[in-house]
Give the backbone structure.
Amino acid sequence: MRTVILRSSDGADHIVSSEAASLSRTVQSLLEELEAKEGEESPLIVPLPNVCDCTLRKVLQYCIQHTEPGTNLTGRIHVSETRRRDLEVWDRNYMLVSTDELYHLVMAAHYLNVPGLLELCCEGIANLIRGKSPQHVRQHFGLVNNFEKAEEEDIRRTNLWALVDEKELAKK
Amino acid sequence: MSAGYGDVFLMNLPDGVISNVLSALPVEQLLNASMVCKAFAAMSDKLLEKLCKERRWALPRFPRGQSATTAFPWRSLYRQHACIACGKIGEFPLRRLVSGHTVYLICKRCTAIPWVQERLVRENLFVDLEGVSGKKLLSKGQRTKKRRLSAG
């Protein structure tokens, strides 16, 4: 098994197996290019100018965990039941990060194109949105209400009862 | 990377990621999230379009030269077919009609919820808890009000 050196934006090197690095499709295609250009023997150094050191470390944790023996790279179909459950638990713990870290992580996952990690992060963000009023979501994520008057009226009119409006109505 | 918490978070995410995030939400939360901002509404409308097309619900046709009156047609289409209280699709024992057009539906589970019944009472509607044959329509403990449904 070959090892690969991944270089983060601040110049720190991470040595990982090529198997783990190939979870990222971006790195995988870069590796193929490098191999074709420089031959099989030379050390493979992949510069990743868009990912900072601490985020890369976190991403690699995921990659290594998900390529350990027993994990099938293609589709995870043949993984044993216990192994799959372990991974689920591991994923859940892995997602216990601050919103800031989550943001960097999702950007990195998008850039590096790690489908599993991207999905995991999206679920993490979805969990942050879940159960919050639109007002609350805007505050939390720094979004602006950019609806036009008519649109907002339209959307409010077709709103669900179960959502915040009903609770406000009940208070009055 | 300078973007951070509470500053510019979701604004900076690529569109594909936002639509992934939204598709991880259950439908009723999706309807809620579509009220956040235009980008969310547009994105969730696409997701709802898929949902509607799976169920073969089609948008009403408009005379030539006219387009839908709402900015997010699929959202309102979905809403017409779902329970107004919980946003799910299920059994609908309650249907409010105004001159032949459905205004809203309420699913079986929601008719048993007290605050839904309260709201119905505010609109001069009542949940019918016994069928014509005297058979109980809702299970025990869920019956709080006994009045005939008067929709109109």
Remarks:
- Chain A has two domains: 3-113, 134-171.
